Amino acid sequence: MNNNQKLIRDGIASVFDGKPFLLTVSEVASILGISRASVYRLSDTGRLHAMRPVLSGNRGAVRIVRDSVERLLHQWVSDKS
Known about the structure:
Strand order of the largest sheet: 1-3-2
Number of strands: 3
Order of helices and strands: HEHHEEH
Structural class: mainly alpha
Strand content: 5-15%
Number of domains: 1
Radius of gyration: 14 Å
CATH topology: Multidrug-efflux Transporter Regulator, Chain: A, Domain 2
CATH architecture: Orthogonal Bundle
Oligomer: single chain
Distance between the termini: 13 Å
Helix content: 55-70%
Number of helices: 4
Shape: elongated
Largest sheet: 3 strands, antiparallel
């Protein structure tokens, strides 16, 4: 791993410091710099892992697994280099 790759990896990791395991669609959109609709599209195509945690018997809101966002960022960065 060269210095640029290490800087990128560390930079991506710092984006997620203190973030919970499950992120809202709005949080993911902000992190990735894309629209909420694009987050849903990435989820629908399987590029982001989404779930609907149900805690109170109601249909839960969509949450995106943090690790899938991190993986996608790494993929995007490696595709551009």
